[in-house]
Structure formats: structure tokens, C-alpha cells
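Notebook entry, structure prediction.
Reason for the run: the old model in the group folder had no record of what sequence produced it. Starting over properly, with the input documented here first.
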Amino acid sequence: MKAAYVAKFAERQLLTLLLTTLIAAQFAVGHVDTQASDKNSDPSPARAAFELFKKLGGKWVGRSTKGWEEKTSFKTIAGGSVVVEDTPDAKPDESMMTMYHLDGDRLILTHYCEAKNQPRLVATSFADGGKTITFTFLDGGNIPTRDRGHMDKLVMHFLDDNHITKQWTWYQDGGERWLEEIRLVRQR
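New structure, fully documented this time:
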């Protein structure tokens, strides 16, 4: 009787092991299939928008609604994972830089500002088929409270391959203080 019990126990253990292996194999196959179908599906709005940023490579001239002109350039670095917007002459004696990158399925920018802070904004809205992207404040360096003056919002409009607009909003002391629009034209 004891031998029959041991045999039944061993049989159940073997059956449990087989079922566990089958379930694990099904999970692994389902997991692989999910990843393959993700690669074939449409990209997220953030990924599609990032591809637009990558196409901006080159030199641009911008005109601000505040009355000044800027020369800027865009380039993609770090294996295609970051787009750098370099504005060495944003205003007289001012130099700034903005970097755009994906963080998972989020599009993030970090703006290195003449205000000596580094606001990070996240894309929160994609309109006009993804050609209008709204970034809103997430957090930032050297911004101990949200009321410390910083660039708080950016709306980018991709008009065509050679024309874009940027609308920057400054936030300070509990509210938006000013808006500036810069119209950029690609240089040939």
C-alpha cells in the first residue's frame, strides 16, 4: 500500500511539473507574440512625434513675437535617441539648449534656460494628426517651487518640413506671465 501511495505521489508530481512547464511555455509564446505584434502596430503618438523632431536636422532662423531673431540648429545624437536644439544666440548675449527624447512612451524635453534652471516638460497633447504637440511642466532643476519663474509650456506646430512655430509660456508666482511665439524657417 505504501508503494502504491509513493507511485501515485510521484505521478502527481510529474503531472504538476508537466503542467507548469506547459503553462510557462504558453506564457512565453504569448509574450513573444505580444512583442512582435507591438512592433507591427502603429507607433504611439509620442514615438510618431519624436520622428518629426528627428527630421528637423539642420540650421534654422527664427523670428520672435518679442521682436528679435534667433539662429538655431537641430541635430540627433546618442544613437538617434535625443534631438538637440541649440540656440547659441537666442537673444543678445543669451544661449540656450533644449533636448527632446523618449522615456518609454512619453516624449520629454529638458530646456536649459538663461533663467539658470532646467525645466522638464512632457508631451500631454497631440493634435492635427500629431503635428501640434503640447508640452506641459513636469519638474526641473533649480526650480525649488513651481512659483519660481520658468518655462512652463511649449506648443510646437509642425507646419511643413521647412516651417515650425514654437509658443513658449513663462510661469511665475502662481500664474502664466507671458507668451512668446517663434516662427522658424529652415535654411537651405
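Summary: The chain has two domains: 1-41, 45-186.
The old model has been moved to the deprecated folder.
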